[in-house]
Design a protein that fits this description.
The chain is mostly helical. It is built from ten helices and three strands, in the order H-H-H-H-H-H-H-H-E-H-H-E-E. The chain starts with a helix and ends with a strand.
């Protein structure tokens, strides 16, 4: 954060930040308020999900350079790319789980059936990875929603509970960004709008 601040203040220098979650960077307590303000005002560009063909290329490269390609069926790679739906992290995790399954079960080939067998484990691994990567405030919001169970929690109750649990609560606009990123990671779902908004 100190380097970003120094660069932002340097004449003739353009700062380009590449982030998985820019809201985490902007909200970090290590970033000075002036730098936060400048980062918020910068143009943002969100990248699209990978196409099916791009995922096939990513997976094929890993099969070619990391596995015995003769034991991996093309249909298995297709099935992984289909189930990942543009998410490269999920696709790679799925391939890794399927390869381990073949190795541990001493199965001869990585097939579409093997891919189906490990699908839920791959999803769970990515889910756990997302949970481990959450910052303090995102985790607090997530925990409140999780603790509410299947009934979920209304937006107003969520904000009230968050302000009770957290020492230095973020602004409501920042919380909404956090909630959006939790949805993007498929950790929560939102239904309704306005006062009727509910999170599960």
């Amino acid at each position: 954060p100190n380097l970003i601040h120094a660069l932002v203040d340097t004449p003739g220098v353009t700062v380009i930040c590449i982030c998985v979650d820019d809201d985490d960077l902007i909200a970090s307590s290590d970033v000075r308020p002036g730098t936060q303000s400048r980062l918020r005002s910068m143009m943002r560009m969100s990248l699209d999900s990978y196409t099916h063909q791009e995922l096939l290329d990513i997976l094929s490269y890993r099969v070619e350079h990391g596995l015995d390609g003769s034991r991996v069926e093309d249909e298995a790679i297709e099935a992984i790319a289909d189930s990942a739906a543009g998410n490269a992290r999920l696709a790679i995790t799925h391939l890794r789980r399927a390869a381990r399954y073949v190795m541990n079960e001493e199965t001869d080939r990585l097939t579409a059936a093997v891919v189906e067998e490990v699908a839920s484990d791959a999803q769970a691994a990515v889910h756990d990875l997302h949970l481990r990567s959450l910052g303090t405030h995102q985790r607090s919001l997530y925990n409140i929603i999780r603790d509410a169970g299947s009934a979920g929690v209304t937006a107003s109750t969520l904000h009230d509970e968050y302000e009770t649990r957290v020492q230095n609560p973020r602004s409501k606009s920042m919380r909404r960004r956090y909630l959006t990123s939790l949805q993007r990671y498929d950790l929560i779902t939102q239904s309704g709008s306005g006062r009727g908004t509910r999170y599960t």
